[in-house]
Amino acid sequence: MVSRIRIRQGHADASPVATFIELDLWGGIVGAAFVVVANGLFVQVGGVWLVLLPLSILIGALLRAKRVLPTDTVAALAWIAAGNWQVAVWVSLLFPFLWPVMALTVLMAVVLATPYVAGGALRWLIGGGAAVAGLVGSIGLLNDDGGVVVDIADELEFGLVVGALVAQIIPIGLIVWQNNQLQLGALAEARALNENLTRSQSLLSESRRRVVAAADAERSRIERDLHDGAQARLVAIGIRLRLLESQAIGTKLAGDVAELVSEIEDASADLRELSHGIYPPLLETRGLREAIAAAARRFDGVSVDALTDVGRLGRDVESALYFTCLEALSNASKHAGGAPIAVSLTSDDGQVALTITDDGPGFDAGVVQRSHGIVNMSDRIAVVGGSLDIESGPGGTRVEARAPAGG
Predict the structure, then answer these.
(1) Distance of CA 351 to the CA centre of its chain
(2) What's the CA gap between 387 and 398, in Å, rounded?
(3) Is the separation of the CB atoms in 104 and 68 below 8 Å?
(4) What is the CA 347 to chain-centroid distance, rounded?
(5) Whole-model pTM above 0.70?
(6) Which terminus of the chain has a lower count of CB atoms within 10 Å, N or C?
């Protein structure tokens, strides 16, 4: 039913409907005035006065449509259709020779409503319009010489039909033009939105690139400072303590010095580990495969049997994949409950694929998808033009990072 028609999203502008209502109102008023003048002065056939009834109903329906239009476009369209369709049926009964014009009257309501209703409701509207148009055509064809004016001159009939057709085609043309403007406007908005989205994506990618580049530069600087500063000082202190240890042999200080030497060595190893985690020299000198294999040895239960030698890649790509691997291994070791973890590295069709899988309990991807670690991995891979795919469930978790080999 017409009352179930819903406004289609994106078409809230009802100004074409308002314009049509005004034109249709004037058409109904002028038509009523024409009947009064023509029948009162010239035709003088009693049955012609019956035309004033459907025209009055039309005017009332249009006034109602005008009243509800600002808040309910659907209801306004329903009143417009009802008013025009009953005119088409009445006029076809009274003047059967005008049935082609009345078929256009039925069509107008369907064309007008098309941009404003959803698909299901539109099928009802088209079906209703087709039924009324079929009724109008049947009335006209079955009563070709009937109606309230039985004998009408062919010239007058021709003039009335042609004039009415022209009068109906003009508002139909207006509706088509207005619908075209709606579509052009929607297309322009979509194009502008697409341009804005493209610009925003470009700015976001550039921002990501700057952030990651700055982080990598800072990481390299810290690694150099640790290596050349704190680590060098610890090494120097260790050498001096070993000299002191050799001199303290046989004294009561020997045990304390030996303990200090051990602590210095442990601190130096910890610092070296931290330094390598910031930007490992092995990644710089030997490439991604060796760096990932070394990093995986720091985690328990990690298999690296499927590491393919993918050759040397761009520094940004190697860095992105390496630190993504570290983040994924860290997450798996924390949350997989000691389950086996496997790392694979492959290259195919110009793409390098890094995959980390575990057989743990998994996690709810919808809950943690914006966690700090996942955001970091996603940003790193996005900067080098790659993709990150994470699947998790009761059977385990799979993290796959892909990046262009030529990056």
Answers:
(1) 27
(2) 14
(3) no
(4) 32
(5) no
(6) N
Sequence-separated (6 or more) residues with CB below 8 Å from residue 205: 382, 383
Tokens linked to 313? 């890649």
Written as tens digits, the pLDDT of the chain (407 aa) is 223 333 333 334 557 889 889 989 999 999 999 999 988 998 888 889 999 999 999 999 999 999 999 889 889 999 999 999 999 999 999 988 888 888 888 888 888 887 787 767 778 888 888 888 888 888 887 886 677 766 666 666 667 666 766 666 667 666 667 666 777 777 788 888 888 887 777 777 677 667 666 666 666 666 666 655 666 677 777 777 778 777 777 777 777 777 787 777 767 766 666 655 566 777 888 889 998 998 888 888 899 888 888 888 888 888 889 989 988 888 888 888 788 999 999 998 889 999 999 988 887 666 555 667 788 888 888 888 889 998 888 888 999 999 998 75
Residue 383 CA to residue 316 CA, distance in Å, equals 9
Indicate the pairing of strand 302-307 with strand 341-348. parallel
Distance CA 407, CA 311 (A): 12
H helix and E strand count, the chain: 13, 5
User: Rounded to an integer, what distance in angstroms lies between the CA atom of residue 384 and that of residue 317?
Assistant: 6
Q: For residue 387, give both structure tokens.
A: 């993709």
Q: Yes or no: say if 107 and 133 are a contact pair by the CB < 8 Å rule.
A: yes
At a CB cut-off of 8 Å and minimum separation 6, what does 388 contact? 324, 377, 378, 381, 382, 399, 400, 401, 402
CA dihedral for 325, 328, 330, 336, sign (positive or negative): negative
Both tokens of 284, joined, read: 């710089």
Q: Sketch the domain layout of the chain as residue ranges.
A: 2-152, 211-278, 287-404
Rounded Cα gap, residues 64 and 67, in angstroms: 5
The total number of residues shown for the chain amounts to 407
CA 231 to chain centre: 51
Q: 3-state class of 298 per DSSP? A: coil
CA distance 256 to 258: 5
